[in-house]
Amino acid sequence: MTSREEAIEIPVDARARQWVAALPWRQAALAGIGGALAIGLLAVMNATETLPLLIPPFGASCVLVFGVSASPFARPRNVIGGHVISAAVGLVAVSAFGGGVLGVAAGVGLAIAAMILSDTVHPPAGANPIVVALSGAGWPFLIAPVLIGAATIVVCGWIYNRMRTGASV
């Protein structure tokens, strides 16, 4: 290296500080808090055991709704519709083919196709047929946890985004 290159080289610790300073800390903290509150609300309602509302795909839904709310995958229509459609397709597939490999594979594949055709693609919902098969869920699964849980996330996301942007709730 020439002395000129050495003079303009930024030390590693300074680059690390610049990188850390450039991170969207406020956005990340607010999105994390929003997701935690939505899942916390579902978990509290789930704890009563009268209305089971907590399924793993909802964690991924919160990433979209609170972390990248401008994404088309985070639209209310996609969150609610995607979850309901994929869960319904999963229930049909598991009823037709059983909860084994064929039922799970058909459920996920058909759920993807159904979400695309209905313009309700929500990637986390693609896991619903797997949840249906592994849990042995029946048709009430569509209402609780799927419909009520997805709607709760959408409402929490709406309130969160109104508060984040300063609009009245």
TrEMBL record:
Transmembrane annotation, as ranges: 28-47, 53-73, 85-117, 137-160
Organism superkingdom: Bacteria
Record keyword Transmembrane present: yes
Pfam families per the UniProt record, alphabetical: TM_HPP (PF04982)
Keywords annotated in UniProt: Membrane, Transmembrane, Transmembrane helix
Residue ranges annotated for the HPP transmembrane region domain, each copy included: 23-165
Name listed for the protein in its UniProt record: Membrane protein
Taxonomic source organism: Hyphomicrobium nitrativorans NL23
Phylogenetic lineage: Bacteria, Pseudomonadati, Pseudomonadota, Alphaproteobacteria, Hyphomicrobiales
